[in-house]
Fold:
Amino acid sequence: MLTIYLKGGQVEVRRTSLPRRPPGFARIRLLCGGICNTDLELQRGYYGFSGVPGHEFVGEVLDCDTQELVGRRVVGEINLNCGACEWCRRGLGRHCPRRTVLGIVKHPGAFREVLTLPERNLHVLPDSIPTHVAVFTEPLAAACEILDQIKLSRGTEVAVLGDGKLGLLIAQVLNAHRMKVHLFGRHKEKLRIAQRAGVATELVSPKLPVAAYPCVVDASGSVEGLAQAVRMTQPRGTVVMKSTVHDTVALDTAPIIVHEINLVGSRCGRFEPALRLLRQGKINVEDMISDKMRLADAPRAFARATQKGVLKVLLE
Structure:
């Protein structure tokens, strides 16, 4: 089978054997995968990664212990946890100290013709959600996670920094939950996607608002984004940190302490809210698809994903 492999910054297409299926796991045929910023950071050396990337996917179950799943389209949560520790018992298996992570930490990713995941990680897709839309489930769940972590009332003003893939999803999720969202970005064409969903947008300028928002989400993907988010946050407000960057982020902690600002790290989320929003058609992901390519063309697809102005590149 075809397998995509990252090593030393290079994207390789290899021929490999079908993966072994341990008890409780499913073997899944890849239908569609999405290249995200984390994949690009892994290519650049994040985590010192080498291996099979990919964690945003839709697949068809080929074989597993539960026969009812065979032949069904599924998406899968990316954290493989032990299921027995305190974190898992609390429903927070994504913080399990023994977890592996699909395509990121010690478990080969989804960018291969056949992948494996525990059955308990899988969510069967309703027929009403097209495959190329459902591939956004994992990043959309990460956007929804914000609402699980902090309490935001309807009408709360929230600034989102960054008009990349995750920033656009976050802005739309918060807007769908009736927040007053203000998205700041650098690309007019990307901001228009959020505008069509009713989100107020603004091009980034040297004179951004100061101490203006009770909540600011940094999805800028830049080393400067966190400091800018802090400057824009009101005293006793909250900064949600969504950016993962390979570089070290330098931060003056004085304004955080003086203004008593809360910093909230935010990563993966539950799939149920994301699937509900996709089923209800409340999130526009169609306009975020920049290109679709074959799995065999992964080197070209990764190169395309790094180009200026490109959003989601799908591998089919």
Q: What stands out?
A: The first helix runs from residue 37 to 44. The mean pLDDT is 95. The first strand starts at residue 2 and ends at 7.
